[in-house]
């Protein structure tokens, strides 16, 4: 007999069903997953040894939880994934507004129905997907929204006085009985609304317009918040923090490999883009390095954080830039170029909070600086480091390349709309590049070689061995001192 075929309270008891609280339910299912060596929070990377163990301990302790961290640290995702630890279905008294457990009814409706019908009380089965409630904290949230209020229309229709508790319209929290209830951005909730949560969290009491109801609500609360020293919009009141069992600190990915996993999982790419555009490994690493550089850049407010959404939207913009270029030039298949990274600047400028000095520089200038710093940081992982101070007669692996540009009085132009064939011909004309890459990156695939060639040019610009000028149709690379020496 399928569990969903049980339609009455009597049949439920006969089947031997045992009722338990949501916290016990989460705990038992988590224990089972751990025993079976199953992944408890699928699709979350970088938290395997930090956040997830703490979250699992909080669930085993049956705590209400506060996830504290900067923007884009998967706080809401973790809360939503807790839904996977719920039972597939739970029984609810038919007609209950607050998901009454037939074994432990708490509403007047459920109590009276069970008293009247006994074992014949009708029940229905609530799926776990319907047992998740979420509210974004905003300044306009009221006690009536989350706790409840007196409903004059209900009082008039039922011809009841306002002294009768049946005139109450329950808010979001009572309606989330036996569910996971998430409040995002808790500090944004006004202090007086946070105060209304005290008794719900500790004693299970709610007060609505003078009604003092003893409703032992069965709710798993999960709150998310940015650190208090970041948000200027508000803070979590101390007594509320005291009532939360576990506060778990989230963080950004610690390495590029983890960051890449997150970006590739979350980026919404069109299938035709994936087929049309090849993205070299170095380009993916550079994209993540840009975010790492942004998080430590002095022009960007570290307290605000740099969201993982930056790299996600940047990857989408990067592929769209390459796609647009290929469509214009007529190439059916193309590879991402370093020049295409100019197309991710809108993704950067929209997701960084600048300090005063950064505002003076301008968001676009800061974005260009970050891209340059990322190129510089990644360069030393693939090629010999360029020292700031070198002995005058010391040989450098880059001497031949710099000399080549010294002899090119007009410099070298890489236009944005070059076809792939023309783009490759321009880079192939720089013979010292082949020698450099052959010496230090001999295992590069032929297709990736051209991205690396342009990458070397950008890196030499960052180290002041070449100059780079942006004009309306592309980039120009030149020897920075040749024109002064030649008198041009």
Written description of the protein model:
The chain is of the alpha/beta class and 488 residues long. The protein contains 23 helices and 16 strands. It has helices at 9-14, 22-35, 51-60, 75-81, 108-117, 143-146, 152-158, 172-175, 191-195, 198-202, 238-242, 256-266, 271-276, 281-295, 309-329, 345-349, 356-361, 363-379, 399-407, 420-428, 431-440, 446-462, 482-486; strands spanning 65-68, 89-93, 123-127, 132-136, 148-150, 168-170, 180-184, 205-208, 211-214, 220-225, 246-249, 277-278, 334-335, 412-415, 467-471, 474-478. The strands form six sheets. Strands 4-7-10-1-11 form a five-stranded parallel sheet, with helices on one face. Strands 14-16-15 form a three-stranded antiparallel sheet, with helices on one face. A two-stranded antiparallel ribbon has the order 2-3. β8 and β9 (211-214) form a beta hairpin. α12 packs across α14 (281-295) and α12 packs across α15. The radius of gyration is 31 Å and the shape is elongated.
């Amino acid at each position: 007999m399928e569990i969903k075929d049980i339609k009455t309270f009597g049949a439920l008891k006969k089947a031997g069903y045992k009722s338990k609280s949501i916290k016990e339910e989460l705990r038992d299912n988590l224990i089972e997953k751990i025993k079976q060596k199953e992944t408890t929070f699928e699709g979350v990377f970088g938290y395997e040894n930090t956040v997830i163990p703490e979250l699992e301990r909080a669930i085993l302790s049956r705590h209400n939880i506060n996830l504290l961290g900067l923007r884009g640290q998967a706080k809401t995702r973790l809360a939503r994934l807790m839904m996977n630890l719920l039972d597939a279905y739970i029984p609810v008294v038919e007609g209950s507004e607050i998901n009454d457990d037939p074994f432990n009814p708490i509403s007047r409706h459920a109590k009276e129905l069970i008293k009247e019908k006994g074992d014949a009380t009708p029940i229905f089965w609530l799926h776990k997907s319907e047992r998740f409630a979420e509210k974004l904290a905003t300044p306009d949230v009221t006690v009536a929204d989350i706790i409840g209020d007196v409903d004059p229309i209900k009082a008039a229709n039922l011809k009841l006085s306002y002294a009768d508790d049946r005139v109450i319209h329950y808010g979001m929290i009572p309606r989330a009985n036996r569910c996971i209830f998430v409040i995002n951005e808790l500090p944004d909730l006004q202090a007086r609304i946070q105060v209304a949560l005290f008794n719900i969290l500790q004693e299970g009491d709610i007060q609505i317009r003078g009604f003092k109801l003893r409703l032992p609500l069965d709710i798993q609360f999960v709150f998310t918040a940015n650190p208090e020293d970041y948000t200027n919009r508000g803070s979590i009141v101390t007594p509320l923090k005291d009532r939360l069992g576990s506060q778990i600190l989230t963080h950004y990915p610690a390495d590029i490999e983890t960051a890449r996993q997150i970006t590739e999982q979350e980026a919404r790419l069109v299938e035709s883009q994936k087929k049309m555009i090849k993205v070299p490994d170095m380009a993916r690493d550079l994209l993540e390095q840009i975010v790492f550089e942004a998080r430590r850049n002095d022009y960007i407010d570290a307290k605000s954080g740099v969201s993982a959404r930056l790299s996600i939207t940047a990857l989408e913009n990067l592929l769209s830039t390459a796609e647009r270029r290929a469509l214009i030039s007529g190439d059916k298949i193309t590879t991402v170029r370093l020049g295409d990274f100019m197309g991710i600047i809108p993704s950067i400028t929209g997701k960084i909070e600048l300090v005063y000095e950064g505002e003076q520089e301008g968001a676009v200038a800061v974005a260009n600086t970050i891209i340059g710093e990322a190129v510089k940081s990644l360069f030393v992982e693939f090629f010999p480091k360029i020292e700031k101070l070198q002995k005058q007669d010391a040989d450098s692996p880059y001497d031949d390349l710099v000399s080549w540009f010294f002899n090119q009085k007009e410099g070298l132009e890489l236009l944005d709309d070059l076809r792939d064939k023309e783009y490759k011909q321009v880079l192939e004309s720089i013979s010292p590049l082949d020698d450099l890459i052959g010496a230090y990156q001999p295992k590069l695939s032929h297709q990736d070689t051209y991205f690396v060639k342009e990458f070397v040019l950008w890196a030499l610009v960052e180290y002041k061995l070449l100059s780079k000028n942006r004009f309306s149709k592309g980039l120009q690379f030149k020897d920075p001192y040749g024109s002064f020496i030649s008198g041009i």
